[in-house]
Amino acid sequence: METISNILLEQFNGPVTIEMILASLIVSAVVSLFIIIVYSKTFSGVVYNKTMAQTIIMLSMVTAMIIRTINSNLSLSLGMVGALSIVRFRTAIKEPVDTAFMFWAITAGIMSGAGLYVISIVGSLVLGVCYYLVYILSSRAKSQYLLVLIYNESVEQQVQEALNSITKKQLKSKSLTSNNQIEITYEIDFKNSSEELLQTLKNIEGVKTVNLVSYRNDYGL
Asked: What is the C-alpha to C-alpha distance for residues 13 and 43, in angstroms, rounded to an integer?
């Protein structure tokens, strides 16, 4: 009867051929290209960062090579684990979704390096389709804005009457200056044209400024 140590040694001492390495790299590259397509189609920022696409494909292929190497030699795998444990990544990632895409690329690389090509391809296809459907549904939701107004205190009632056309709004801040001017900020959520609302507020005599800012998170960015 084989001991546990013999079984482990057999698992980590299998032969690694050029065909196996190429297969892992090709599958990881194809899957990462699909991930990049999904990322570019669902990108909602202002400027598309090309380095993110390069990072995704590099993460996937490098991870595939690491996993393929670990599977081939037990002593080498232990040394690699020790080497990777001293690496510290300090690059700040602003968008949480970017972290999810990077983790997706690493997972695809692990599956490809382990020889689980079908799981890597099918799993990525299902995940990509599901995420794209969620993105489409969320993009059809009502637009959120921050409405910032500065107006004279004397036209308070007129401004509030104009704002009554917005069914969903939440007061974020309100301040009164020394020259009897009110600065007020609302978080609003509506389907109507923003141009119509801005024009209505602008036509009120006593309104100094009207600003409408796209709102996507707690910081109003």
From this structure: 43
- Specify burial of residue 23 (Cβ count, 10 A radius: 0-12, 13-18, 19+): middle
The model's pTM is 0.63
Residue 96 tokens, joined: 């949480």
DSSP-derived secondary structure for 170-214: EEEEEEE-TTSEEEEEEEEEE-S-HHHHHHHHHTSTTEEEEEEEE
- The answer to whether the CB of 25 falls within 8 A of the CB of 65 is yes
Collect all residues with Cβ–Cβ distance below 8 Å to 97 and sequence separation of at least 6: none
CA 155 to CA 50: how far, in whole Å? 49
Q: In this structure, what token pair is assigned to residue 126? A: 């299902």
Residue 84, SS3 per DSSP: helix
List, for residues 138-195, the tens digit of each pLDDT value: 765 556 778 888 888 888 888 888 877 777 777 788 887 777 788 888 887 765 556 6
Domains of the chain from N-terminus onward: 4-139 (no CATH), 143-214 (3.30.70.60)
CA dist 213 and 204 (Å) reads 20
CA proximity to 143, closest of 100, 192, 183: 192
146 dihedral zone (left: phi>0; alpha: psi -120 to 50; beta): beta
